[in-house]
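Internal QA ticket QA-208
Title: Verify multi-chain structure generation after dependency bump
Assignee: T.L.

Test input:
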Amino acid sequence: MRSFQVCICGQPLQCNEYPTPKPAGTEVLLKVLAAGVCHSDLHLSDGYFDLGGGKRMSLEDRGMKLPVTLGHENVGEVVAVGPDAQGVKVGDRRLAHPWIGCGVCAVCQRGEENLCRAMKSLGVFSNGRYSDYLMLPHPRYLIDIGDLPADRAAPLACSGVTTYGALKKVGPMLTTEPVVVIGAGGLGLMCIAIHKAMGGKSAIVVDIDPKKREAAKKAGADMVFDGGTPDAAAQIVAATNGGVWAVIDLVGSSATARLGIDSLIKGGKYIIVGLYGGDITISLPPFPMRAITLQGSYVGSVSEMAELIDLVKRTGLPPVPIKTRPLEEVNATLNDLRAGKIVGRVVLTPAG
Ligand SMILES: [Zn+2]
Ligand SMILES: [Zn+2]
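Actual output:
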């Protein structure tokens, strides 16, 4: 099988050939039908996150071992099962939940494997699949997608569950108060669609790119704002009668964090998802005086993934523009993503 791997951080992915693995124990082998290309793959191939102030968080220091095959948004067809793998059979089409923990710690036991301290996430800390085949350690990470098309379902594994997990943190006021979404790339359009599917009241979208603001409007945003204008937060506060209850920041830069926090009404919540990088200095008295919350949100749990797939089966797939490309175009796709040229999502189709 062919696997596109990070061999040296900052260099293009290299295509390496490996023998197709055989599942043992509870393992399940899938032929990869679809592999979404996610913005975080840029950070993973660079090998670091920008912490601001010239500081970096190295992924190798955090446990990423090279070479590693990237790709964490996968749908595949089961082609072989280990002797102890129950509940799946050859021919089943499944979405692979990539946010895998150690399975034994207290955090994993309470069902939040995505917050495990010893994560083995596919395509980050263990091999994912910009590749022909994908091995999962246990059938419990395989979600039945029913009749959903593979290329449109694959992005639910990361951009879908990431936005769903963030939207759930907004709480019951999701259906009664508008939510600001910062960033209208693939993740942003997914967020708008899932917000609507969850019965969200209205979405206000912020992006610096007019093309992306236009795409957000088409996807159902009620209002859009240019995050590049110096008074963007003041515009949002004026348009929402004093500020918003919740902001979901899918960019996560110094500028968007400032904008997000300044857009909140008293009691509001700023939820940061994006890993663009940077830092901010915040005055402390406004925290208690405005009673605001800052909360991080990282991907989602297996149960949230199952809830999301169930929601999508009932309400329809998010209308995020999807383009498919052959597996060989992974490096060109990463370059396009870095240049901001992709509206929606590119999904690679190794089996197609
Ligand atoms: Zn991702
Ligand atoms: Zn764990």
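Spot checks passed. The pocket of zinc ion (ligand 2) is lined by residues 101-102, 105, 107-108, 116, 118 (CB under 6 Å).
Status: verified.
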